[in-house]
Amino acid sequence: MAPAWPPRTVIRRSPGLRTLESALYRSGLGPVAGVDEVGRGACAGPLVVAACVLGPGRPAALAALDDSKRLTANAREQLFPLIRRHALAYHVVFIPPADVDARGVHVANIEGMRRAVAGLALRPGYVLSDGFRVPGLPMPSLPVIGGDGAAACIAAASVLAKVSRDRYMATLDDPGYGFADHKGYSTAAHTAALAALGPCGQHRYSFINVRNVAALAAATGTMGTNRAEGRLSR
């Protein structure tokens, strides 16, 4: 009987976020890449996906690494250059709002994960993805629910994606939307600005709140009064 592929790995207890990576490396399936996205629920701005390979050992400099949502903005900023310095490989992909609208957020997300893995300078032997199965990868992979809190390589990818996206949103030509503050998510301030100004080129028209505002603006003849574009440079 032919052995199953990928080989069955036995996951034993190990401290911190290294359990999954340790089991895969012990089974000879490394290097292990983690992949995660940021901005899936935002109604404006790009979807940003990152892939990261940390290697079998965890540098002391990355002791504070955790799910990016559990870290403060300052902690993420401090970890960002350390992850890039100590990672064996990483790659960040920006998917513009128009592409999210054209493909749908889930399809764009999965495509971004494939692109992020393909862009790694080091080909991984195994990929751990946060939450979603990623079909079409040329190596075995495993979706991990809550992966950015369970695997260090996914946590590192989440920090890379989060900081990259937050920095980009803060650089947008922003005529009153407040992107630097809410990063394109539907906060009360963003909702008020969207209602007052109408959608701009950074908004996702496939999202119902943006679509409703655009439809109202078209019906009242105010559509197109504010079409400021914040263009992606990558």
CATH architectural type of the largest domain = 2-Layer Sandwich
Number of helices: 8
**Relevant CATH superfamily of the largest domain:** Ribonuclease H-like superfamily/Ribonuclease H
CATH topology tier name of the largest domain: Nucleotidyltransferase, domain 5
Structural class, by secondary structure, is: alpha/beta
The residue-averaged pLDDT reads: 86
Outline the low-pLDDT stretches.
7-16, 227-234
- What is the share of helical residues? 25-40%
Principal-axes geometry comes out as elongated
Number of β-strand runs = 5
The CATH C-level class name of the largest domain: Alpha Beta
Distance between the termini: 48 Å
Number of domains: 2
Q: Which sheet architecture does the biggest sheet show?
A: 5 strands, mixed
Query: In what range is the share of β-strand residues?
Result: 5-15%
- What's the helix-strand series? HEEHEHHEEHHHH
Keywords, separated by commas or semicolons:
single chain, 234 residues, alpha/beta, Nucleotidyltransferase, domain 5, 2 domains, 5-stranded mixed β-sheet, 8 helices, 5 strands, nuclease, RNase_HII/HIII, RNaseH_sf
Task: Describe this entry's structure for a reader.
- It is a single chain.
- The protein is an alpha/beta fold and 234 residues long.
- The protein has eight helices and five strands, in the order αββαβααββαααα.
- The chain has two domains: 154 residues, Nucleotidyltransferase, domain 5, CATH 3.30.420.10; 42 residues, no CATH class.
- The chain is elongated and about 65 Å long.
